[in-house]
Design brief:
With 270 residues, the chain is of the alpha+beta class. Helix content is 20%, strand content 45%. The chain has two domains: 15-132, 2,3-Dihydroxybiphenyl 1,2-Dioxygenase, domain 1, CATH 3.10.180.10; 145-261, Nuclear Transport Factor 2, Chain: A. It has helices at 21-32, 91-100, 145-160, 164-168, 186-195; strands at residues 15-18, 35-42, 45-55, 61-66, 83-87, 104-111, 117-122, 128-132, 171-179, 182-185, 198-214, 217-230, 233-247, 252-261.
């Protein structure tokens, strides 16, 4: 099962210039793992890159072009004087990859007192590239399957405890359900739990897929079973759920839950 997470949106693009932009694109891809997403060359001279975009798998990217391509402020910038910091999950493996590809070590792997681990190297034209696990003050933690499996387990425990206040800590104020009965405000669900009209005694959920839409928005798909009582009537459910989680600066909270019941197999008897 593919549980790879990749963020594809960004609102901030560092811009660099290179004497050999095409060589830089190859180097940044081979040494660091950037992914080429767009390259626009000059029609009468393909060696001149007017504009290129390279994506970083964890989100964001860089733009670059050939230096001295025109008389604009960007074209006249002196190459080799830029510095970029990039978040990575495995700095040790990336450091080995970068050095093997020819990056000059400026600062080897080091553990910082603020919890980050990372390194700094120089690219083929002199720019400084720092990579580390530090994501920035108040930034969302890594959105992977392990993170959300633990979070979903905690949420399930709150549901089985029938504790409306504890359940609400995992949701936004406008949390909403979408299912076979239409749209239901999460506040209605919480009121039912608080009153005792809705109780759960089992809640077993497995995280199947995690997809980041941005640095602060993640889709989490789960499959599970649950049982309980609604106003005295027993029920059991086998459901798929896709939850939209948003980072509020402190924790991931669910803003939307889409429920899809698993249909019972149809009988093939006459």
């Amino acid at each position: 099962m593919d549980t790879t997470t990749e963020t594809t949106t960004t609102a901030l693009w560092p811009c660099l210039t290179y004497r050999d932009a095409r060589g830089a694109i190859r180097f940044l891809s081979e040494a660091f793992g950037f992914r080429e997403s767009a390259v626009y060359a000059r029609q009468d001279d393909p060696s001149v890159v007017e504009h290129a975009e390279l994506r970083w798998p964890l989100g964001g990217g860089v733009m670059l072009g050939t230096s001295a391509k025109d008389e604009s402020a960007w074209g006249l910038r002196t190459p080799g004087n830029d510095a970029v910091y990039v978040v990575c999950d495995d700095p040790d493996a990336l450091f080995e990859r970068a050095v093997a590809a020819g990056a000059e070590t400026v600062r080897g792997l080091v553990d910082e007192d603020y919890g980050s681990r990372g390194f700094t190297v120089r690219d083929i034209e002199g720019n400084l590239w720092s990579f580390g696990t530090y994501r920035g003050e108040g930034a969302a933690p890594r959105a992977d399957r392990e993170t959300f499996a633990a979070l979903i387990d905690e949420w399930a425990a709150a549901l089985v405890a029938n504790d409306a206040e504890a359940i609400a800590r995992f949701t936004t104020a406008d949390w909403t359900f979408v299912g076979g009965n239409g749209v239901t405000p999460g506040a209605t669900f919480l009121k039912l739990v608080a009153s005792g009209d809705l109780t759960h005694d089992t809640m077993n959920l497995d995280v199947e897929r995690v997809v980041s839409l941005s640095d602060t928005t993640v889709l989490v798909t789960t499959h599970g079973t649950n049982s309980g009582a609604y106003r005295g009537e027993r029920f059991t459910a086998d459901e798929w759920a896709t939850d939209v989680f948003v980072w509020d600066g402190e924790r991931w909270r669910c803003a939307l839950t889409q429920l899809t019941p698993v249909e019972a197999p149809r009988s093939t008897d006459g």
